[in-house]
Amino acid sequence: MRYIIQYLEPGPHLAHIAPREAAHRLHRALAALPIEGVLLGWSLSPALVASCAREAQEAGAALYLWHPLLTAQGAPPEWPSWRAIGPTGQPAPAYRNLPEFTFLCPNHPEARAFVIERLQKALQEGPFAGAFLDRIRWPSPTGNDHAHWACFCPFCQRQAAQNGLDLSLIQRILCTRPLSAALRAIYRGEEGPLGEWARWREEVISDLVRGAAEMLHREKKRVGLDVWSPALAPLVGQALGALAPSADWVKVMTYLRAWGPAGLPYEVAHWARQMAEEGEEGEALSALSRLLGLPLPPTLNAFTEGFAPHAFAIEAERACAFAGHAPVWVGLDLVEIPGICHIDEPTVRAALRAVRQTGIAGIVLSWDLWHIPLERLDWLKE
Ligand SMILES: [Zn+2]
Question: Fewer beta carbons below 10 Å: N end or C end of the chain?
Answer without folding.
Answer: C
